[in-house]
Amino acid sequence: MRTRTQLDLEAILAQGEVRRVVVDLTARAYDGVAAIGAAAAAGARVVAVGQHDDLALRRRATAAGAERVFAYRQLFESGPSKLAAWLAKER
């Protein structure tokens, strides 16, 4: 399921069926760190994707509840395998 706004994400999370969330930290339609916090608070496992050189934002994402922050380049170079492996893992 894909959403592009914080309100949509929160509505989906309220249904209680989402177990994993991937957040784009550079999205303009929502605050990525807030989205991570909302998803983590709802009990979802969260990873984020962002710029490799924005260490402060990556740290904020982790502090908000992201299990991991992937750099865009890291995902593009590995293909979907890194993200697919994370999605397949259980806690």
Task: Give a structural overview.
- This protein has 91 residues and is an alpha/beta fold.
- The chain has one domain (6-88): Rossmann fold (3-Layer(aba) Sandwich).
- Helices cover 48% and strands 16% of the residues.
- It contains five helices and three strands; from the N terminus they run αβαβαβαα.
- It has helices spanning 6-14, 32-41, 55-64, 72-78, 81-88; strands spanning 20-24, 45-50, 68-71.
- It has a three-stranded parallel beta sheet.
- Strand 1, helix 2 (32-41) and strand 2 form a beta-alpha-beta unit.
- Helix 2 (32-41) runs parallel beside helix 3 (55-64).
- It is globular, with a radius of gyration of 12 Å.
- The chain starts with 5 loop residues before the first helix and ends with a helix.
Superfamily at the CATH H level? Response regulator
User: How would you sum up the global shape?
Assistant: globular
Number of helices: 5
Helix content: 40-55%
- H-E string: HEHEHEHH
**How far apart are the first and last residues' alpha carbons, in Å?**
21 Å
Short structural description:
The chain has a three-stranded parallel beta sheet with strand order 1-2-3. The model has no long low-confidence stretch (mean pLDDT 88). The protein contains five helices and three strands, in the order αβαβαβαα.
